[in-house]
Design goal:
single chain, about 160 residues, alpha/beta, two-stranded antiparallel ribbon, about 30% helix
């Protein structure tokens, strides 16, 4: 989910089982993604998925995955096997207003940061995973996710 107004691209590794079943990013109610973005942006993230996507577009955030296809049992990144990467360089090149790429979690960062190394003028932000499997407290996650604020309207 990106458009030509995207300023911040948040890349996860690969959606989990609940997200895949619902065809929605971050659909697991225990995942803190929407709560983190609400806190960072100072804007409500509605319950309705379509409205959530509209809220992201309004603050110029795009979403995508580092992994295009893989084999995995369950939802944990550690179970990803035979991964094929998405063409991140091509996507980034197609986004004229892009300023920052944030990686949601270690696997996304480890896989995707190398693909974007050397992109001029692009800020790379490795963030702690919003997944409930990553047990860092919400407050500590939020402190690191605040790195997004300078790139969002009315946030920095």
């Amino acid at each position: 989910m990106v458009d030509d107004q995207t300023r911040v691209l948040i890349l996860g590794s690969l959606p989990g089982e609940i997200s895949l079943a619902r065809a929605q990013y971050y659909a697991n109610p225990r995942n803190q993604f929407w709560r983190l973005l609400c806190a960072v942006s100072g804007r409500d993230m509605p319950d309705d998925y379509g409205a959530r996507l509209a809220a992201l577009r309004a603050i110029h955030i795009g979403l995508w995955d580092v992994v295009g296809s893989a084999e995995r049992t369950g939802s944990l990144d550690g179970a990803i096997r035979k991964a094929t990467a998405n063409p991140l360089g091509d996507l980034v090149a197609s986004l004229p207003r892009l300023k920052a790429v944030a990686f949601n979690g270690g696997r996304a960062s480890a896989t995707g940061a190398a693909a974007l190394a050397g992109q001029p003028g692009l800020v790379i932000l490795p963030l702690p995973s919003s997944s409930p499997a990553y047990t860092l407290s919400f407050e500590l996650k939020l402190a690191r996710w605040q790195a997004l604020a300078p790139f969002l309207p009315d946030c920095g």
